[in-house]
């Protein structure tokens, strides 16, 4: 499964939203209405699913779904 598909699946599960409403440009907080607790759960799920540890300082730079996908791809 592609990284993008994994990320969208986890976002859809965590936020209970239609995966068709998610794109690479979707902003986690503004567009997908995630709060800080959602983001932390998403990060933990992504780390478990991909084996990529997401550094705390990097988390502050991840604003969109595309940012998350690119971070995971770069650190896989």
What do you see in this structure?
The protein is mostly helical. The protein is globular and about 25 Å long. The protein is 57% helix and 0% strand. Helix 1 (3-15) packs antiparallel against helix 2 and helix 1 packs across helix 4 (65-75). The model has no long low-confidence stretch (mean pLDDT 94). The chain has helices at 3-15, 36-50, 56-59, 65-75. It has a single domain (3-16, 26-75), classed as Non-ribosomal Peptide Synthetase Peptidyl Carrier Protein, Chain A, CATH 1.10.1200.
CATH architecture: Orthogonal Bundle
| Average predicted confidence as pLDDT | 94
Secondary structure category: mainly alpha
Q: What's the CATH topology label?
A: Non-ribosomal Peptide Synthetase Peptidyl Carrier Protein, Chain A
Radius of gyration: 11 Å
* Number of discrete helical segments: 4
Described by strand count, sense and barrel closure, the largest sheet is: none
State the fourth-level CATH superfamily. Answer: ACP-like
Helix content: 55-70%
Binned strand content: under 5%
Low-confidence stretches: none
What count of structural domains?
1
> Based on DSSP secondary structure assignment, what is the total number of beta strands?
0
N-end to C-end Cα span: 14 Å
CATH class: Mainly Alpha
Question: Care to give the gist of this entry?
Answer:
The protein is mostly helical.
What's the layout of helices and strands?
Layout: H1 3-15, H2 36-50, H3 56-59, H4 65-75
Brief descriptors of the model:
4 helices, 57% helix, mainly alpha
């Amino acid at each position: 499964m592609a990284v993008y598909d994994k990320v969208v699946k986890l976002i859809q599960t965590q936020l209970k939203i239609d995966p068709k409403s998610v794109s690479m440009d979707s902003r986690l907080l503004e567009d997908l209405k995630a709060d800080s607790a959602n983001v932390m759960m998403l990060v933990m799920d992504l780390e478990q699913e991909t084996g990529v540890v997401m550094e705390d300082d990097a988390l502050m730079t991840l604003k969109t779904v595309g940012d998350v996908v690119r971070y995971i791809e770069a650190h896989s």
